[in-house]
Amino acid sequence: MCWSATADLVAGAGVTAVGLACVTRVRGVRDLPLAALPLLLGAHQVVEAMVWDAGGGSGPATVVWAVIALPLLAVWVPAGVWCAAPPRARRRLGAVLAVGVVTAAGLAYGLAVGPVTAEIRGHTIGYVTDLSHPVPLIAGYLLATVGSLLLSGDRRLLTLGVFVAVGALVCWALWRLEFVSTWCAFAAVCSVLLLGWVRARPAPR
């Protein structure tokens, strides 16, 4: 969703570097899945650079991009938050994780049975896939990803959740206008916030 393959590569390299810093500074194994999220986001942007180079279409890079963006993130984010959350928050987060798993199954089915295509639209790439029940799937996706951060019981993750919710609206609005997307900067800032969270985490007892 950046405005060129070069921008995606540069942003992907930067986000990956932040991800490496997050992983190397983790103090507890339960924090590792969430700390590794920037590595996934960085790889995601590198994959999109390949989509740019291919001129869009429905090739392997497009499919990989969609798999990361849809079913994988729908599980990765709530699972990472559940692992890192304090015990008092894990029951409610378990329910959110279950929503993420069900949503990911629906999204994976849609990707498996229907074609996924990418179309270059000026400064953005539009991805199209045929989902049989898009409204509940989108609602489940947002609950799993944004909702898990908001319900994490961790002040820094709550702040990240608010930022993700607002940033997602901004990115969507600019994408709808086919203007320069903010996703590169958005992913980078999210990764930096996660690095701050990792550095502030106490050492496990």
Automatic annotation (TrEMBL):
It comes from the Bacteria. The chain crosses the membrane at residues 63-85, 92-111, 131-150, 157-175, 181-200. Keywords: Membrane, Transmembrane, Transmembrane helix. InterPro entries: DUF6629. It holds the Pfam family DUF6629. Signal peptide: none annotated. This is DUF6629 family protein. The lineage of its organism: Bacteria, Bacillati, Actinomycetota, Actinomycetes, Kitasatosporales.
